[in-house]
Amino acid sequence: MSHPSTYQPASGIEKWLDTRLPFPRVMHDQFLVFPTPRNLNYWWTFGGILTFMLAVQMATGIVLAMHYVPTPEGAFDSVEKIMRDVNWGWLLRYGHAVGASMFFLAVYIHSFRGLYYGSYKAPREVLWILGVVILLLMIATAFMGYSLVWGQMSFWAVTVITNLFSSLDSLIPGLGTTLVEWIWGGFSVGGPTLNRLYALHYLFPFVIAGVVILHIWALHVPGNNNPTGVDVKTAKDTIPFHPYYTIKDGFALVLFLLLFAVLLFYAPNLLGHADNYIPANPLQTPPHIVPEWYFLPFYAILRAIPNKLFGVIGLLGSIGVLVFIPWLDTSRIRSTSYRPIYKWFFWLFVITCLGLGYLGSQAPEGWYLFFGRLATFYYFAFFLLIMPIVGLIERPKKLPGSITQSVLGSEPPPVSSEPVREGVAPWHAFPVAALLALASVSLLLPAAALAEEAANGHGPVIKAQEWSFAPPFGSFDQAQLQRGYRVYKEICANCHSMRLLSYRNLAEPGGPHFSPKAVETLAAQAQVTDGPDDKGQMFHRPGRASDAFRSPFANDQAARAANSGALPPDLSVIAKARPGGPDFLYALLTGYQQPPAGFDLTQGMHYNAAFPGHQIAMPNPLVDGAVPYTDGTKPTVDNYAKDVTAFLMWSAEPKLEERHKIGARVMIFLLVFAVIMYFAKRAVWARLHRHDHEAHTA
């Protein structure tokens, strides 16, 4: 809200600057003494959290762009090289990827808070619309960034989503196809597509930052909404933004960073898809294309509508309808806290959005498709029917006379560290409990389905193993990695390459830690093609520590010819490219057995209990005694499988130990800092409550 300036320049330089570029005055008036409703709860802290996350994404993205190679041949490998060879590259890449998820988590909470408390109502319509614009820009930016990994899932997501524009052909023949070819820069997704997405992905965050500035500007004209929805009436209804909300927002930010740090350091791939660690292959479509989790509700809406054109309209409409909410809601009351009927519809809407997210991750068939259509119907009905109708027929509760009355009441307020909150009847907690229950069920359903499949003999049998490198404090067993390398070299390397590893990596901290001399010996055992020499001829030489692991085949065609048409996958990141990771690899290597009675095994295939479909082209590679061990470990299939799996896990995550160690330090720092911020917040707010108590009893 507009208010008189209280800024007083304290020095000659400040006075000189204030008459020419009053930036200190703006910061003082708008971010320090800005009058803010005194009853804002922690849901309002996500605005500041979002500003911080935008800064994180821009800072990490700029550095990543310096090392990224936007070509189909170099994109995937450049991302992995950032993780391995760039100083703190793993932190930048994982920070950017996990940061995108945290950014969307915060923006969805921020949006649902705005919906619940009616922050879109007059005079804040422009503020809300700018927020929707930011959401659209975020979705576009995240989609383009997701494509840059150039893995199987991101490549096919780009192919499928951009191809949706071809539905416009049903309106104007040729329009959609022309638009798709213009976006692709050709007749299929390729180099020009990647270049364009890369350029736009770099540009859009600066556009978002500009709209965020407008968003904050639009907020400071009418001022903040508040949980009661009652307008500010007197100066007693507000308090300065600093120090009260700066310390409160700071405390909430530290708590948010704790969640961010847990995912970043201990589960950076939890919210991603394993197929994105497989290089993009235009000739092989994944069995089930799934976007990132924050797109799943919109993806479910797209697939719930059978007609392609109407599906695209539904997808765009699911976001576009948000723009018109200020006029669709006919209620005179802002806050849902005072709307007993609408409150139930709102919580059902939140549950519907969570359900759409889960349904978007499942195949669009059977009951999944039915519930997807049902949820899609309610999604649009909530805005187009429920909001207008309930607002007209509902009888809201009585509002407090002012913001101050909602906080202090008629009795002297207790001297506490937080504003007094509105009373919440026990039955009001039911929608929240139902929301949490549905979220828990949605997380457990996929695991339960896999367990049931396995029990029926139809799904893969994968059991969790104990690994020394398991988070949060796990580390690799060097002796195990050295044995695993020997198993790889003697058995796996006959068919599989590891093109992202160099022999020098074997001597680096956190890995097998061979001595430099041992690494030179291991590298020299390989014959490397080099050249051309002075005569223009290629020649062979012994390998060096700087050389990449030698591939067993000259090219993919030779690999297919030697393996009955099957292409052995590269093992560099195989431990992250398969659901289940190391547990799956161990189960696969130990899962060869005779097929059960009645199982139709295709000729040339082998039965494996852990492999999807139980038929695998690769014969059993491990037998007892195949690779002799010199450290006393028994040369059994079980030990071979564990050792080589640990080695493959290290090859996929060579900085895992460093990540765990830094994560432990960061977590300790954040926990201590959170305690300090909590007591600081209590002290700051206690001063306000003592003043309120004295004023109320005077």
Automatic annotation (TrEMBL):
InterPro entries linked to this entry: Cyt_b/b6_C, Cyt_b/b6_C_sf, Cyt_b/b6_N, Cyt_c-like_dom, Cyt_c-like_dom_sf, Cyt_c1, Cytb/b6-like_sf, Cytochrome_b_C_euk/bac
Keywords, in A-Z order: Electron transport, Heme, Iron, Membrane, Metal-binding, Respiratory chain, Transmembrane, Transmembrane helix, Transport
Source domain of life: Bacteria
Membrane topology term: Multi-pass membrane protein
Stored PROSITE patterns: CYTB_CTER, CYTB_NTER, CYTC
Gene Ontology biological-process entries: respiratory electron transport chain
Keyword match Transmembrane helix: yes
CDD domains cross-referenced by the UniProt entry: cytochrome_b_C, Cytochrome_b_N
A single cellular component GO annotation: membrane
Binding annotation for heme c: C492, C495, H496, M618
Sequence intervals crossing the membrane: 42-69, 90-111, 126-148, 155-179, 199-219, 250-267, 309-329, 341-361, 367-393, 662-680
Domain Cytochrome b/b6 N-terminal region profile: 13-228
Pfam families: Cytochrom_B_C, Cytochrom_C1, Cytochrome_B
Its job: Component of the ubiquinol-cytochrome c reductase complex (complex III or cytochrome b-c1 complex), which is a respiratory chain that generates an electrochemical potential coupled to ATP synthesis.
Complex and partners: The main subunits of complex b-c1 are: cytochrome b, cytochrome c1 and the Rieske protein.
Name recorded for this polypeptide: Cytochrome b
Organism: Methyloceanibacter superfactus
